[in-house]
Amino acid sequence: MAQKRTFNTLAIDDVNQFVFGSCPNPVTTKRGIVLGGGDVIPELNFTLPTMELTPDTVDKAYTIYRNIAHDSLERASQLNIDGVQLEYETTVEFTLNPDWGINVCQILLEEMRNAEEQYGLKSALRMTVNDNREFVRPPEMRSGENWEKMQKLITESCKSGADFISIESTGGKEVSDDAIIRGDLEKLVFAVGVMGARDMEFLWDHIVDICDANGALPAGDSSCGFANTAMVLAEKGFISRMFAAVARVALVPRALVAFERGAVGPSKDCEYAGPYLKAITGSPIAMEGRTCAGAHLSQVGNISGAVADLWSNESIQYIRLLSEMAPTVHMEQLIYDCRLYNTRKELADKLFYRDLLVDSDCYNDPQAWVLRPDVVIRIASEIVKETDPLLRTKAACAATIAELRSAIAAGSLKVTRQDEKWLKRMEKSLAGIPDNAEEFWNKIKPSLDLDTFRAGDYLLD
Amino acid sequence: MAILDEIKEAVVDGETDEIEELVQQAIDEGIDPNVIINDGLIGGMDIVAPLFRDGEMFVPEVMEAADCMKLGTALLKPLLGDAGMETKGKIVIGTIDGDLHDIGKNLVVLMLESNGYEVIDLGIDVEAETFAQAVEEQKPQIVGLSSMLTTTMMQMDTTIKCLEDKGLRDQVKVIIGGAPITQEFADEIGADGFSKDASACVELCDSIVNAA
């Protein structure tokens, strides 16, 4: 059984010890790469080009994945990096057909072994399983064929030799999608602080147990379907950047549940609230930023890497660029970024570079402001004063709103009047949220579309 | 008629608590329901649309304005008689087979409805046959297909071919959108239009309907 923990203090409470590449609880991969042990490690994320996936075309997909691993690892070896990590995020079809996903996992591992034999390159594999539980509507979160297939893929990936298991879980998304589009903080807090957190307890208990029994490490989740959706919508001008910033931090307690149930890191790259998880748990984190502009745009391209332990990109398609195929190009870019991180080992040098990354972004957007290391430590310290996920989520929102208000008042953070209005609106929403989850459920129930989710899956009656 | 200005303002401000009372007041004053709709409710939405386009309003605020519009029209509909409400046109929309993403599609629905279109939302993971059936039954001017994944976008091609096979393709314009979608892809599969986001989709539909 997984060891349960409760985080009620910060693992990193000194901003001058909060740097990239190092954390209090490093994690070692099967081939001996230490994550969070001093250096920042590149983690390559890739995806298929436009193609239909059928039993007739899946062999072509296998070849593409093999080529991605082979070519990018070869390039990594040519650039003399000590270690790299690959992340295979399964798309829907590779989880619905778990044998396909397992085959890809094994192909990648084979190429990683070849690279070690041929070039002496150490590498690790993170398997990120697509959360297919929402593939039936309303989603079946705790049972059903899709959940069985996900467990099979996780189990067999562990047995095949994957180093880490991650997931972009979707518990509570049935409510949070509407909450984000409507800018409804009350609904978002319910979606992530009650529904999401309860689903994470269920999900990560299972993932941790499977990993423990089959020799992989449970790494961590992502708020991709939640705060990243808000980030992308804000970038398009559809929702307030203030709301997106608060949503980012509101997701921290939900992500923290994975670690309390036994995850050890590295947290997923698209969990942009990773710095909060690192400050609270002391575990290594993967982050992405300017490197994922090929998949989505953001306002946090530099600051997101300020305290990263792995530096990653996002779903880069296997398409031809002038120099090479895109995943190989991205491997090179990640490695050069990591060389910059890892060139100077003195703490003072690391802090100087960290602060360059921070200062180059933080004044331009509230979503960047909430990733400042000092702000992270202050808000995280408010989060860990509570133990209940709902109360933590409320604390996260309240502390974030206070930080943003203070930054605007000080003239440090520039926002439009239209955006600033949202602070008051969110404060009003937050003030009406009960502290008790059942009381909250009874209050919010009339405003929810109860046909979109199975209340019992979230222990709500 | 000051009350129409108040209705317009309430729509722009998204005052869902006040709008019904204001519309009822206008009805009680004997104002023609069509005038209340056109000069009050739609008048408000006509202010909202450019504010959103210019980045001075966000989607949640547009949704609140749209909610006001719905609450107001619900009160007025029974008074409109057989003619009912005029719309710009009818659109069938859905996320294609194998794809569960619905936020982008929902935004498009919102923007279209807020701009006077009747929208039949088929939801997510919609098979080609279902689109064809909806075209046959609903007789829309436009079908909108959404996809967020590189591995599912080819279902758009399948859907267009299904419409061709059933002899429905000439009856309807097909427009497509979603993160991996481009104009080149739209041309490649024979779609009639592509829009990069929800706002552009309204302009695209307007151009299609106006050209008909």
Structural summary, described in words:
The complex is a heterodimer of chains A (about 450) and B (about 210). With about 450 residues, chain A is α/β, with parallel strands linked by helices. Chain A has a single domain (about 15-460), classed as TIM Barrel, CATH 3.20.20. In chain A, about 50% of the residues lie in helices and about 10% in strands. In chain A, the strands form two sheets. In chain A, strands 3, 4, 5, 6, 7, 8, 9 and 10 form an eight-stranded parallel beta sheet that branches. Chain A has a two-stranded antiparallel sheet with strand order 1-2. In chain A, a hairpin with a 5-residue loop joins strand 1 and strand 2. In chain A, helix 3 (about 100-120) runs parallel beside helix 4 (about 145-160), helix 4 packs across helix 6 (about 185-215) and helix 9 (about 250-260) packs across helix 10 (about 275-280). The longest helix of chain A is centred in the middle third of the chain and has 30 residues, at about 185-215. Chain B is α/β, with parallel strands linked by helices and about 210 residues long. Chain B folds into two domains: about 1-80, Methyltransferase, Methionine Synthase (B12-binding Domains), Chain A, domain 1; about 90-210, Cobalamin-binding domain (Rossmann fold), CATH 3.40.50.280. Helix content of chain B is about 55%, strand content about 10%. Chain B is built from nine helices and five strands; from the N terminus they run H-H-H-H-E-H-E-H-E-H-E-H-E-H. Chain B has helices spanning about 1-15, 20-30, 35-55, 60-75, 105-115, 130-140, 155-165, 185-190, 200-210, and strands at about 90-95, 115-120, 140-145, 175, 195. In chain B, strands 2-1-3-4-5 form a five-stranded parallel beta sheet, sandwiched between helices. In chain B, helix 1 packs antiparallel against helix 2 and helix 2 (about 20-30) packs parallel to helix 4. The longest helix of chain B has 21 residues, at about 35-55. The radius of gyration of chain B is 18 Å and the shape is elongated. The two termini of chain B are about 35 Å apart. The interface of A and B includes residues 53, 135, 236, 243 and 418 of A.
